[in-house]
Every structure is written in C-alpha cells, then in structure tokens.
Amino acid sequence: MRNDPDPAPSLGWSDFAAGRHRPGGKHTWFGGTPDELLDRVRANWSQRRPGAGRTGLDKVVVVPVDPAGFVSSTVRVDESTTLHAAFERRQAHEDGYVRVTAAGPREPAVHASVVLYSADTLLENGGTRSTDCAWEVVCLIAGPSADEPMDPLTMARNMLAKPGGTFCAYSAEQFAEAVWYWAARASAHVPPREAD
After folding, report:
1. What is the distance between the alpha carbons of residues 105 and 151, in angstroms, rounded to a whole number?
2. pTM score, two decimals?
3. Per the domain annotation, does 84 fall within a domain?
4. How does pLDDT run along the chain (196 residues), one tens digit per residue?
5. Which domain holds residue 156?
C-alpha cells in the first residue's frame, strides 16, 4: 500500500468529535483552533495509515500530527490511584456502559494523531455525517505512545456493529494488546459539573 502525494481532500469536524474533544473535558483535546488542527492533518495527509483493524486508506485513517498543544485524556494508574466509576453512554441512541476514570495527572502528549472517517463510512450502521466534506475528524489521540491501541470497549462496539460502532474485524492479538495497554490506564476524572 502506498500513500498518494495528492493534497488532502476536503476535511471537516464531525459533531461527535467537536462535542467530545473540548478543552478541560475528559477526552483528549487540542489547544488550538479547529482550523489549525485541520491544517496539521492536511500537512501530514501523505503520512496517513489505515485505522485499527483496517487494511486500506478508503474508510478510516489515522494521521500523525505535531503533538504541540495537545492534552491527553489518560492517567497512568497504580494501587494508590483513586478510581471513579459511572454508568454512561456516548450518545443518546447508544448502549450504556460502565466508565472508569482516574484522579491524577494526565500523561504527557508526546505523540498525537487524528482519526478520520470517510463520508461513506460515517453513514454505516445508521450513522450520520456532520458536513459535506469527504472526510470528518471523529477522534483525537494524544499520549506517551505513538501506537496507543483503541479502547477495547470501542473495539467491541465496532466489531459487533452496536449502535454508534462502525464494523471492523479485529484480531485476538489486537484485543489482547488493547486490554493490556488499558489495564494500566484510565481516562482522567473530571467532576460532573465540568465534564463534557
């Protein structure tokens, strides 16, 4: 597989990502403007790679970007970490789940990448598009590892084509690596009045 040298197609933010990745929230965020982030994606478009569990560049891509200005969502946990659990759902039409968060300092954003879905992929499994762009930002990833695996629950939502998921088959090794990585981390705890 080879990336083409063509400039990036039209890019936009999904409402889902714009609502989740806000400064001060529990998810990774970028301190610059939405347009500045899209400029970083365009600048590195030729470095895109298939999203987790994908083999091509036509549905889901991950674009590495300069991590300056990113804040990670994760806290490294140990036996002294205070954990919080709550029943949540990402969007009203999705199944709920138990989310565990951790009090403590967020891990440094040494690496950052942006996950984008193609317009057609956004419409799978009853999904919607937020723009008329060819690709939309759906997730920001920033942390200490360039190869941060997807959260296992997100992988399960996708593989089982649950509401809010986009079907993708993952290997047992991909699941095992994700479980192992996330066993030592949790999302940063943000008190409910401040949470997004």
Report:
1. 20
2. 0.84
3. yes
4. 344 556 779 999 999 999 999 999 989 999 999 999 999 999 999 999 999 889 999 999 999 999 999 999 999 999 999 999 999 998 888 899 999 999 999 999 999 999 999 999 999 878 889 999 999 999 999 999 988 898 999 899 989 999 888 888 999 999 999 999 999 999 999 987 655 4
5. 11-188
